Amino acid sequence: MNIYVGNLSFNITEADLREAFEKFGHVASAKVIHNHFRGADSGYGFVEMPNNSEADRAMKALNGAELKGSTLKLSEAKPKSNKKRGRRRRSW
User: Fold this and answer.
1) pLDDT tens-digit readout, 14-47
2) What is the pLDDT of residues 37-87, one digit of tens each?
3) Residue 38, domain member (yes or no)
4) Is residue 84 part of a domain?
5) 26, 73 contact by CB (below 8 A)
6) In terms of residue numbers, what domain contains 26?
7) At 33, which CATH number?
8) CA 33 vs CA 25, 62, 78, 85: distances in Å
9) Strands 2-6, 40-48: parallel, antiparallel or unpaired by DSSP?
10) What's the pTM value of the predicted model, to 2 decimals?
């Protein structure tokens, strides 16, 4: 299961995310998303846990929990949409 982790503190690392989730099972990957324009973390990330029951336990335990000064907001990650953002240009 791919888990969206929101409201991350700007000083959280991928190692911090992995450590928090590994208490509940195997973590295949942990990623903190960086904002390249600001050069800082954007405040969210993703954790991939292959075992769904371990992922469910982690989500129940960590949703609303505090990590490095921030209250985590977790949900199952949604697949990326193929829709393009913004308005479509009309041709007359």
Assistant:
1) 999 999 999 999 999 999 987 656 555 568 999 9
2) 655 556 899 999 999 999 999 999 999 999 999 999 999 998 877 666 556
3) yes
4) no
5) no
6) 2-73
7) 3.30.70.330
8) 22, 19, 16, 19
9) antiparallel
10) 0.80
User: Could you identify the residue written with the tokens 């990623």?
Assistant: 31
SS (H, E, C) the chain: CEEEEECCCCCCCHHHHHHHHHCCCCCCEEEEEEECCCCEEEEEEEEECCCHHHHHHHHHHHCCCEECCEECEEEECCCCCCCCCCCCCCCC
Q: Which helix or strand (DSSP H or E) is residue 66 part of?
A: strand 66-67
CB 61 within 8 A of CB 3: no
Rounded Cα distance between 24 and 54, Å, is: 6
Residue 31 domain flag: yes
Name the phi and psi angles at 18, rounded to 5: -60, -45
Number of domains in the chain: 1
Return the structure tokens found at 39.
């050069």
